[in-house]
Amino acid sequence: MAKMTLQELRELRDTKKSEIQKRDIHDKDTQVIIGMGTCGIAAGAKTVLDAFLEELEAQHLTSVSVTQTGCMGLCYVEPTVEVMSPGMPSVIYGKVDAKIAKQIVVDHILNKKMVSEYVFDKPSTDIIKDGGK
Most buried residue, 13, 23, 47, 85, by most Cβ within 10 Å? Predict the structure, then answer.
């Protein structure tokens, strides 16, 4: 590897700081959690994660964290993504690809409207009304 200049090192540091900031859940009101178990990865979860990061960047959304988890137990609909956003029930989307990931950012996160055809799990309305009790 060739030696890097001080300016190149600073640019690399700034890029990595930005990437790490997107994964930090502190001071974020919305969380996107992507299932990255072996079945999720095999089904394309890495591409989905990248699509979420790209669309959040394109929409200039800084209050959303993108993290990963292991298997969510919904292997038959991988890749799976859980979205927790204020004023909305926690939802698990299934069969998510890059196009659907971008749709989730626009419809669910920005416009507060679930992408119903890809919802595979959500709490029942009586649980939501009781605050999860």
Answer: 85
DSSP string, 95-125: S--HHHHHHHIIIIIIT----GGGEEE---H
H/E element holding 67? strand 64-69
- Supply the pLDDT for residue 123: 54
- Is residue 115 within 8 A of residue 100, CB to CB? The reply is yes
User: Over the stretch 28-75, which tens digit does the pLDDT of each residue have?
Assistant: 889 999 999 999 999 999 999 999 999 998 999 989 999 999 988 889
Torsion, Cα of 102, 108, 114, 119 (10° steps) = 50
Residue 97 token pair: 């690809």
What is the set of domains in the chain, with CATH numbers? 29-129 (3.40.30.10)
Record the pTM.
Answer: 0.76
